[in-house]
Hints:
alpha+beta, 2 helices, about 15% helix, rod-shaped
Amino acid sequence: xxxxxxxxxxxxxxxCGTGALPPAAxxxxxxxxAGMATLNQMHRQGRPKPPxxxxxxxxxxxxxxxxxxxxxxxxxxxxxxxxRKCARVRLSTGKEVVCFIPGEGHSLQEHHVVLVxxxxxxxxxxxxxxxxxxxxxxxxxxKKKK
Length: 146
């Protein structure tokens, strides 16, 4: 009779292990689910949605506008040796990033407005954006004189 009363109390609670039952009834509780969904649960919930794609350095835009804060010179990774011209840029989203300045020679200074696009520089760690030449305050690459 006492066992039947304990089982009724467990069924009315809905779940075991809440502390309302005496310790003698604890072995009567079924073990917790292993984490695998049953076919019925999978049918009811439907196909799981894939995670959203990660946004790149330009936040899903092809190009983004920014203002030059500081000109930098970076050294490339091990087998290469050079002085790569970079700039610290504050993007229109408010984020500050380091961008590579392509081509030979530039006239970029502080407070110049530039257009930035995605494009990693392989031998510069952490530099994932490139400044677009010929747009806003960043002039085209000058032709070499003969």
